[in-house]
Design a protein that fits this description.
The complex is a heterotrimer of chains A (334), B (334) and C (360).
Chain A: E1 4-7, H1 13-26, E2 30-33, H2 39-46, H3 55-67, E3 73-75, E4 78-83, E5 86-87, H4 90-93, H5 95-102, E6 109-110, E7 113-115, H6 119-131, H7 138-161, H8 166-174, E8 190-194, H9 197-200, H10 203-206, H11 209-215, E9 219-221, H12 237-241, H13 251-263, E10 268-274, H14 278-293, E11 298-303, H15 309-333
Parallel strand pairs in A: 1-2, 1-3, 3-6, 4-7, 8-9, 8-10, 10-11
Antiparallel strand pairs in A: 4-5
Helix pairs in contact in A: 1-7, 1-8, 2-3, 13-14
Chain B: E1 3-11, E2 15-22, E3 27-34, H1 39-51, E4 58-66, H2 70-77, E5 81-82, H3 85-96, E6 102-106, E7 111-117, E8 120-126, H4 135-145, H5 149-156, H6 170-182, H7 187-205, E9 216-219, H8 226-236, E10 240-241, H9 249-265, E11 282-287, E12 296-302, E13 305-310, E14 331-332
Parallel strand pairs in B: 1-4, 4-5, 6-9, 9-10
Antiparallel strand pairs in B: 1-2, 2-3, 6-7, 7-8, 11-12, 11-14, 12-13
Chain C: E1 3-4, H1 11-19, H2 34-43, H3 50-64, E2 69-74, H4 84-94, E3 100-105, H5 106-121, H6 127-154, H7 164-177, H8 181-196, E4 207-213, H9 215-219, H10 227-233, E5 236-240, H11 244-254, H12 263-269, H13 281-291, E6 297-303, H14 307-315, E7 325-330, H15 337-355
Parallel strand pairs in C: 1-2, 2-3, 4-5, 4-6, 6-7
Classes of the chains: A alpha/beta (334), B alpha/beta (334), C alpha/beta (360).
Chain lengths: 334, 334, 360
């Protein structure tokens, strides 16, 4: 019987799911993805961690809990760095240990650590030690890893070239759902959304932000659609302080995306952040400043487990109205 | 030889409580009045009232204070012991219920949970800055709904289908409550929903990570509210005991601690006598200019004599014996 | 070019000692006070941690005094600290101040980076001078810590409450005034003897509490509301996992040699937390494990919303080593009352646990 591996539909799922799925399925595992986020799951997760923990981690813990009796093992990878000296937020580094400490009767956890800064050999060792759980044949593991990497690149390519969101791309790649390619109309508004994928693509967390914008006839841009990794550190400190281009692995989703949107002059930027998110408390203020200096309307939405849906709806409507009216007035003037 | 009685005073931010205990640890008399922002006057009032309750063959053997204004109260009445509320509540509870394992205490401005094993406090928690899990939260919401706090419980008990109200914070709860009102839910359902919100908030914040085990007792002013008791019983799925004098348990604890102190040391009490109710104390504040902090120092004076000073960040004004009588270089603001 | 630097505890005394011999034009920001905090709160983004806010407040107050170059440290990865400067610089610019950040990546460049920073603020002073003034600064740092350790040890024993703290404050001033190794040594000896010589309660067996947590709030008495002094007043001896001089010596000297200065602590944390999570979270968990049995309790200081310490707080209850832990969040509050109640209840609790019964 094949081993059932659970993957929580939270945090890194949005960035790496196709890769993990490809790797594990190649090795003969059966993948169980946790249910869509719902309010009960969020509150259950929140009740297990201290209250100033960020919302996405509470959601993550909720997903781990919901997988408890559905699988043999849970995959919780740790992504420490994805390029030289660019690290992930502190919370990501402790996920397996956190789950072990707070989730009662947690399913055995499969770990793998991605740390670019420690070089290729470390990566290979990590891949091998994960693969070992499924096969003793190193060649099979190697083939699976290569296939997984290929899948990941295809995933990345789909989002940037076809302007698909991560969720749409996952549907296309992993479920074979076809996606209607939308026309990028010239008449409508284009709104850029800055934020972490696990906030803006989780419909429960974002209160259907993307769906609502689409329903309002708006063209949306999300960080993963950026043509190349934007450089978010345009200032001269880099060389002096020996800093890497980015500070956080997720910086391109927020500051980088904000930078891209201001360069291509979108009609408005929405920054969506989760309550108590450490990096966003700083990065969002930079996006706001970028937008402000480029004269682009900016709205920040902070979501937490008790955010009222009605408030979000009102604010989105008001923001769009504001932009429409300003645009119409400008056109009349011209 | 005259018998001894022991006095305990608990001055909280919302209510002031007083208890008189006999040598055999029997409650002789107790009082419960609002603090109304005038702790000194209210303490004097309590003292006047309680003095008539002392049996003729008894004298005060010791006095203890507790509560957020314990140092002020201690200075005024001449307390032998000044103890924090947590220890005082634990002492009182274990006296009446020697096998108690969990104490839930909800007062006007703060709430606590005390975990006791074998009559020893092993863990405790207190609410942080937010008042969402406290009595004033209920007062505030009752006021909004135009219900007196006395009717609150009886109305709430009529609820059949309680409404779910977000209780993380008073602000959230309020907007959520208004929303539910507009949706046409009945007042009892909303009121009981508020009780459940308070309880949930309490369990998730103050009670986070604490093992709440039977027997559980519930004390503090909010225990008057039967609906809260019911909500606790439902949430914890167990029976909750409410002591007869739940609202003055802190004062009882302070009295017992004063008695233990007397029994251990045999020292004559420092108690200032009931004549203090007729003395006019003077309180004033001044700003210390000793450092850029500019602390506001409050002082309690009797005639020309400074009894106590507090409110500074450092110890400069704290020890009366260490300092000169007049605050040099300080601006007295009245 | 007028230099300034944000505060962390009493480090300014040591930094002054490094800058003075180099002839640097600098201003020390006013010590953290209520105005610092209100300026900081006004201009900081919502939800950032207290070290960021206080640092920003220091910078604003120093810029008001004419500073235009700010010495600061940064780093890579994980915790917000290394990102501070980007946002702080933006905020100061938006306020209309033309400031330049002079940075060193502590975790990358270590000692060399710091010396380079000193060199660039001193207008390329000769290396010999830089190294000697740096060494004197470190000597002062060590003296400061010695005084603090002594004060935190003795405060619990004093018969006349309120004797040690004023002495300790005077010793800080004297260390600041000391101009050479000779006078520094004399100051340390003089105050050391005076503090050790105060009248003590005979046969007193105090509780011992370890203070751990995020480095800024552990080192800075304004941010932690003098938690160690308050514990001392309750008759508790405190020690802590972090002292600036040790941290600097280990971090700057040993780390470059590939020596993990916290090896024991990290090893102890392994069963519960397998890797460094930035900040001091890993160390916090490890300290709990190795301190069990050596201390009666632990006070865990963390900035509100701190990522590494928050994780540590979630993980700590799961350790099998059972040491009572009191978590204290440091944020914008300025009233000590709530903290003191907690400290009192906590010390009562561990004293009772020790005695095995409720009455003492």
């Amino acid at each position: 019987m094949s081993c059932k591996v659970g993957i929580p539909r939270a945090l890194l799922y949005y960035k790496y799911f196709p890769m993990w799925k490809a790797f594990l399925e190649k090795l003969g595992a059966e993948i169980i993805v946790s249910e869509d986020t719902n309010q009960k799951l969020i509150l259950q997760g929140a009740s297990l961690v201290v209250s100033d923990t960020c919302l996405p981690v509470k959601v993550f813990i909720g997903h781990v809990l919901s997988l408890s009796d559905k699988c043999d093992k849970i995959l919780i990878p740790v992504v420490r760095s994805t390029s030289e000296k660019v690290y992930n937020c502190s919370r990501f580094l402790a996920l397996p240990d956190l789950a072990k400490a707070v989730v009662p009767g947690v399913t055995p956890i499969l770990e793998i650590e991605f740390d670019y800064s420690r070089g290729k050999r470390y990566l290979y060792r990590q891949i091998y030690s994960l693969g070992k759980h499924f096969t003793i044949n190193p060649f099979k593991i190697k083939a699976a890893a290569e296939y997984a990497w290929e899948t990941h690149q295809r995933y990345h390519k789909i989002t940037t070239e076809q302007h698909l969101t991560r969720v749409e791309a996952i549907d296309l790649l992993c479920k074979g759902k076809s996606i209607e390619i939308k026309e990028m109309g010239n008449d409508g508004l284009t709104i850029g959304i800055a934020g972490h994928p696990y906030v803006l693509h989780d419909e429960q967390v974002s209160h259907n932000l993307i769906k609502r914008l689409k329903a309002a006839g708006v063209n949306i841009l999300t960080p993963e659609m950026a043509p190349e990794t934007p450089d978010s550190n345009g200032n001269g400190h880099t060389r002096f302080a020996g800093l890497a281009k980015n500070y956080w692995e997720s910086e391109e989703d927020v500051v980088g995306a904000g930078d891209w949107y201001t360069r291509i002059k979108v009609d408005g930027i929405i920054g969506i952040m989760a309550f108590a998110c450490g990096p966003d408390s700083m990065m969002m203020s930079l996006v706001q400043r970028q937008a402000h200096s480029a004269n682009i309307p900016f709205m920040s939405l902070t979501v937490e487990e008790h955010t009222a849906e009605a408030g979000v709806v009102t604010r989105i409507e008001a923001f769009l109205d504001m932009i429409y009216r300003a645009k119409r007035r400008n056109q009349q003037c011209v | 030889m005259q018998k001894k009685v022991f006095l305990g005073i608990d001055v909280g931010s919302v209510t002031t409580k007083c208890a008189l205990m006999s040598e055999d640890i029997e409650l002789i008399a107790h009082r419960y009045i609002p603090t109304s922002g005038k702790p000194i006057i209210q303490i004097q009032k309590l003292m006047r009232e309680i003095s008539s309750e002392i049996p003729s063959d008894c004298e005060i053997g010791g006095a203890g204070t507790t509560g957020s204004a314990r140092y002020l109260a201690g200075e005024i009445i001449g307390a032998d012991v000044i103890k924090n509320e947590i220890t005082a509540h634990a002492v009182a509870a274990t006296h009446f219920y020697p096998d108690v394992r969990t104490i839930l205490e909800i007062g006007g401005q703060d709430s606590k949970i005390i975990i006791i094993r074998d009559a020893v406090v092993t863990d405790f928690g207190m609410n942080t800055v937010c008042a969402a899990g406290t009595g004033s939260f209920l007062d505030h919401q009752a006021l909004r709904l135009g219900i007196s706090i006395n009717e609150f419980a009886s109305e709430a008990m009529k609820s059949k289908n309680p409404v779910r109200i977000a209780g993380r914070c008073t602000v959230f709860a309020e907007s959520d409550m208004i929303h539910k009102q507009q949706m046409g839910h009945s007042t009892p359902d909303i009121l009981y929903g508020l009780c459940q919100a308070l309880v949930r908030n309490y369990i998730n914040n103050v009670g986070l990570g604490k093992s709440i085990e039977k027997p559980i007792i519930f004390q503090g002013g909010v225990a008057f509210n039967q609906a809260i008791v019911r909500a606790f019983e439902e949430e914890l799925a167990t029976e909750i005991m409410v002591p007869e004098h739940h609202e003055v348990m802190g004062a009882i604890g302070a009295a017992i601690i004063a008695m233990e102190n007397y029994n251990a040391t045999g020292k004559k009490t420092h108690f200032n006598g009931f004549s203090i109710s007729d003395i006019s104390y003077e309180t004033s504040t001044f700003t210390c200019n000793g450092c850029p902090n500019q602390c506001e120092i409050a002082q309690l004076k009797l005639g020309e004599k400074v009894l106590a000073r507090w409110g500074g960040r450092c110890e400069k004004w704290e020890y009366i014996s260490n300092i000169s009588e007049s605050p040099e270089g300080a601006v007295v603001t009245g | 070019m007028r230099i300034t630097f944000p505060h962390i505890g009493n480090a300014y005394i040591a930094i002054k000692a490094m800058l003075d011999p180099l002839g640097v034009d600098y201003v020390v920001p006013p010590k953290c006070n209520k105005r610092t905090l209100s300026l900081a709160t006004k201009y900081s983004p919502e939800g950032v941690c207290i070290p960021f806010k206080l640092n920003l407040g220091n910078m604003i107050e120093a810029v008001e005094l004419g500073a235009d170059h700010i010495m600061n440290v940064t780093g890579h990865g994980t915790c917000r600290m290394g990102y501070y400067f980007k946002v702080q610089e933006q905020i100061l610019r938006d306020m209309g101040y033309d400031v330049t950040m002079m940075l060193t990546g502590l975790s990358e460049h270590k000692l060399k980076g710091f010396l380079n920073l000193l060199r660039s603020v001193s207008n390329n002073a000769p290396w010999s001078k830089i190294i000697s003034s740096f060494a004197f600064g470190i000597a002062k740092m060590t003296a400061l810590d010695d005084m603090e350790i002594l004060a935190n040890n003795m405060r619990a024993f004093e018969i006349h409450k309120g004797t040690i703290t004023p002495l300790y404050r005077k010793s800080l001033q004297a260390i600041d005034d000391a101009s050479d190794y000779h006078s520094l040594k004399a100051v340390v000896r003089e105050y050391g003897e005076e503090m050790s010589g105060v009248e003590v309660i005979p046969d007193y067996k105090p509780l011992k509490i370890l203070v751990v947590g995020e480095i800024y709030v552990v080192l800075d008495p304004f941010a932690n509301m003098d938690v160690e002094m308050e514990l001392g007043k309750l008759g508790v001896v405190t020690n802590r996992s972090l002292y600036l001089s040790r941290w600097v010596k280990k971090g700057l000297f040993f780390n470059p040699l590939g020596i993990d200065q916290w090896r024991d602590v990290h090893k102890a944390a392994m069963p519960y937390l397998k890797r460094d999570i930035g900040g001091d979270g890993w160390e916090t968990v490890g300290e709990k494990v190795i301190s069990t049995g050596h201390y009666d309790g632990m006070v865990h200081l963390a900035p509100f919303t701190c990522m590494p310490e928050g994780t540590a707080q979630c993980i700590m209850p799961s350790t099998k080593e059972d040491l009572p832990v009191l978590a204290i969040y440091c944020d914008e509050q300025t009233s000590k009352a709530g903290m003191i109640t907690r400290l009192e209840a906590f010390t009562d609790m561990i004293a009772m646990k020790k005695a095995g019964c409720l009455s003492q």
